[in-house]
């Protein structure tokens, strides 16, 4: 290949790499690359922000130190399965963040094999912390609403029992036709 042709090809490759780097860094997805030993090769801006650290301090770190203790074994086992070529599907993990505490992430990981390089794992995750918290709040509100309805229904039943045992209740419509009688009124009137 002549020098001018080679230089043009290299320039084209650099342009494409820059576009992909911009795409990876501008997405809100949490993207990482991990080697077979569990060391971080790459983390995009969103993931670095979630961790609360800079690229220079994150590269080469043991990934296990960035994952919550209760998620480490599952995460390590999943990475091991991926490195063996197994398709694992979506999975959840908890990331430790210096600034935000715990971040619930859901995503996928796949093995990457490139000529001349050892295999590594790339993962793409979404921060689902807010969605998870909203779901929990919604569940709590729903449970509270159901409890209020049960209490209201019981109170209404107690009121009806009290009224039925001590008062005659007859409800008529606008034309004077009987629309409802309680049990006591029905028993006395035979209605």
Strand order of the largest sheet: 2-1-5-4-3
Number of helices: 6
Radius of gyration: 32 Å
Mean pLDDT score: 79
Q: Count all strands and give the number.
A: 7
Low-confidence stretches: none
* Topology as a string of helices (H) and strands (E): HEEHHHEEEHEEH
- What is the general shape? elongated
Euclidean distance between termini CA atoms: 106 Å
Q: Helicity, in percent?
A: 40-55%
**What profile does the largest beta sheet have?**
5 strands, antiparallel
Into which percentage range does the β-strand content fall?
15-25%
**Structural class by helix and strand composition:** alpha+beta
Descriptive tags:
6 helices, 23% strand, two-stranded antiparallel sheet, 191 residues, alpha+beta, 50% helix
Explain what you see.
The protein is α+β, with helices and mostly antiparallel strands. The protein is built from six helices and seven strands; from the N terminus they run H-E-E-H-H-H-E-E-E-H-E-E-H. It has helices at residues 3-26, 45-51, 55-58, 69-83, 129-166, 183-189; strands spanning 30-35, 40-43, 91-97, 101-112, 120-127, 170-172, 178-181. The strands form two sheets. A five-stranded antiparallel beta sheet has the order 2-1-5-4-3. It has a two-stranded antiparallel sheet with strand order 6-7. The longest helix has 38 residues, at 129-166. The chain starts with a helix and ends with a helix. The mean pLDDT is 79.
């Amino acid at each position: 290949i002549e020098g001018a042709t080679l230089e043009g090809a290299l320039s084209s490759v650099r342009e494409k790499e820059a576009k992909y780097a911009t795409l990876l860094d501008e997405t809100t997805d949490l993207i990482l690359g991990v080697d077979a030993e569990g060391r971080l090769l790459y983390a995009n801006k969103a993931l670095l922000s979630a961790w609360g650290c800079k690229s220079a301090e994150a590269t080469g770190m043991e990934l296990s130190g960035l994952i919550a203790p209760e998620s480490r074994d599952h995460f390590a086992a999943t990475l091991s399965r991926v490195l063996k070529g197994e398709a694992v599907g979506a999975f959840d993990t908890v990331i430790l963040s210096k600034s935000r505490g715990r971040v619930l992430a859901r995503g996928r990981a796949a093995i990457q094999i490139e000529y001349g390089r050892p295999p590594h794992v790339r993962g793409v995750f979404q921060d689902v912390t807010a969605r998870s918290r909203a779901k929990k709040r919604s569940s709590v509100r729903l449970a509270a609403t159901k409890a209020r309805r049960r209490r209201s229904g019981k109170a209404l039943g107690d009121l009806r029992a009290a009224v039925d045992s001590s008062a005659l209740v007859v409800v008529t419509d606008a034309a004077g036709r009987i629309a409802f009688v309680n049990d006591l009124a029905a028993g006395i009137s035979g209605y």
